[in-house]
Structures are given as structure tokens and as C-alpha cells.
Amino acid sequence: MPNFFEIDKVNLSKDKLFLIAGPCVLEENRETELKIVEHVKKISERLDIPFIFKASYTKANRTSASSYRGVGIEKGLKRLFRVKKEFDVPVLSDIHEVAEVQKASEVLDVLQIPAFLCRQTSLLESAANSGCAVNIKKGQFMSPWDMKHAVEKITAISKKVMVTERGACFGYNNLVVDMRTFPVMSDFGCPVVFDGTHSVQLPGGGKGQTSGQRHMILPLVRAAVAAGCHGLFLEVHPDPSSSPSDSASILPLSQLESVLSVAKKIRTLVLEEQQKRVLFGDIVREKNFASGEDVEKALAIQKKMDEDGEEHKLLGIIMLEQGMLNSEQLLQLLKELEVRQGVKLY
């Protein structure tokens, strides 16, 4: 079970999808970030989705030397502090060097480790020691299981860590999202986030800038939530074509609510399915039909079968096949489950 935690009064939990959203980078005109945070906060409150505002004060990883970099750490942190106080939301931004950590941690609630820096031990440890929560972006060159080592560099110091999937390199100028990533990284004991906007990028595919496939954001978000992510990371803008960074992959602000509404419905179905698994095991224990150890063993078998791509089996069927239950007990348990859930199971 992932370790969920609170970020400045925003409670991250398994029961609610949470959102990290904002512009790619702070622009020269402060009005853009104000419009975005005001709009997103209203949506998050309507949908009851915990919200963390994100914006980079400086972008270090640029395709071209002429690409827009941001307003810088001094000016950027002042503006993020104003957003935090005026709108009462936690704020997140990227850090790139150990030298930035102390100053950034005085303002930010979440320090984000960029994907290309996710293996940098000194940066990770410094972020963990800051007292802030840490969001590690999974490198495009990293397998999901190898991200365990990055997470452990944080958890050796602090438990306030989450990890974000943002696509994996697939040949030149292309990214793909392996949906196995979400259950794999959920086993690390921290919340797993899906970055639905960076994952549709075509890195360097736009003649000196990154291109993207914005129309693929919703399909990937739907799939990632169904696969078990706990939160979404979405860059939004009222006019993506005017964004100085990632204009081809950023989500129009006007589309955010519909995307989140769909994602929330899917998350509800995922939680209901998970609850059925847990509830069945609880009833087995209550009736003393099998030991808690047997239930845990059956859950482990079920998980292994799912990971190996085998046909999904109900927990009760696995326990029957393993000799932990007999057929009469299984029928009694299913009837009890029907009563408690109000759903016909067979």
C-alpha cells in the first residue's frame, strides 16, 4: 500500500485522484498563471479533487539555446509565493542543482526532480533533507522497476515522495507509455502520478523544438487511471499556441474539466474493484473459513497472475483451487458479499 501524506492542508489519499496542474513555465506576464490557478482551483473544488499548482521558474532542459527558459529562480519564487498565499494552494516547481534546494524549499511545498536528473543522488538526497515533499519524474530512459532505487534514495530520509511516469523513449523523437509502469511503481510504497501532457511529446520533433500529439492526452489519461495511477500531472494554458514552452502538447484550459471528470469516474471504478478484493478477504477472516495468512497468500498469487498477464481470477476461486476453501464455503461467502454490496455476483 502506498504511503500517502499531506501537503500544506492538501491530503493525498488512495480514495481520491489528485491533480498537479499549471503552466509549463512562468511567463513574463503574470496574468497567465493567475488565470490558470484561479480556473483550476474552481474545477478542483467542484470535482473534489485535491490540487497542487505547478510552474517552472526555470527550464534547464531545452531543445535549442534560443528556447524560452523562464523568469529565473529569484523572480519565479516570489511569484510562486504570491500564488500560494493568494489562492491558498500548495506549489511545486523543478529544481536542477543542489545549490537551489535551500532557497526553493523556503517557498515550495513540493520539489520536483526533472526526468533527466532522476538518478542524481546528491540532488535527490538534498531534496529529501529539505523537509518538502519530493516528486521524482521517471527518466525517459528508465525502466519502471529501476525507479525503485531513486525512490529509496528519498525514503531513506523522508517518506514524503511520489514518482511520475512521463513516457519512455521509443526510437527517435517519440515516447510511449507502458501501462505496466503503474502497478510496478505502486509497489514502491509511494503515490504514482501520470504526466499526461509530457507523455504525448515528440521530443525534438519540431525543427529545433519539441512537438507533440495533444489529441492523445485523454486516451492516455483514461488508460493510466484504469491501470492504477493515484494522481495526474497536466500542464494547461488558456491559449496553448501562445505558450512559450511545450505549446504542442499542453492541454487547453477549457478542456481540463472534461478530462478530469472522465478520470474521476474511472478512478471510482478502480477503487470499487479493489474494495471487492479486500472485502472478500475480510469476510473470509470474519467467518474463520481460512486464516489471514491464507488470504494474504491468495492475494499474492492473484497479484502474480495479473503481473504475468494470466487470465484474472477472483480471490475466492484462487482460494478454492489452493484448497483454502471448499465449494460450500465459497458459495456462502459470495452470498454474504452480495448482501453487503447490494450487487448480484452470480
Largest beta-sheet characterization: 8 strands, parallel, barrel
The figure for the number of domains is 2
Biggest sheet: strand arrangement: 3-4-5-6-7-8-11-14
From the 3D coordinates, which CATH architecture of the largest domain would you assign?
Answer: Alpha-Beta Barrel
Content-based structural category: alpha/beta
Rg calculated over all Cα atoms: 22 Å
Please give the share of residues in helix.
Answer: 40-55%
CATH topology of the largest domain: TIM Barrel
Mean pLDDT comes to: 90
- CA-based shape: elongated
What does it look like?
The chain is elongated, with a radius of gyration of 22 Å. The protein has 2 domains: 6-266, Aldolase class I (TIM Barrel, Alpha-Beta Barrel); 287-341, no CATH class. Helix 4 links the parallel strand 6 and strand 7 (133-137). It contains 11 helices and 15 strands. Helix content is 42%, strand content 15%. The protein has 346 residues and is of the alpha/beta class. The strands form 4 sheets. Strands 3-4-5-6-7-8-11-14 form an 8-stranded parallel barrel, surrounded by 6 helices. The longest helix has 31 residues, at 256-286. Residues 15-271 form the DAHP synthetase I/KDSA domain. Pathway: Bacterial outer membrane biogenesis; lipopolysaccharide biosynthesis; Carbohydrate biosynthesis; 3-deoxy-D-manno-octulosonate biosynthesis; 3-deoxy-D-manno-octulosonate from D-ribulose 5-phosphate: step 2/3. Keywords: Cytoplasm, Transferase. It catalyses: D-arabinose 5-phosphate + phosphoenolpyruvate + H2O = 3-deoxy-alpha-D-manno-2-octulosonate-8-phosphate + phosphate.
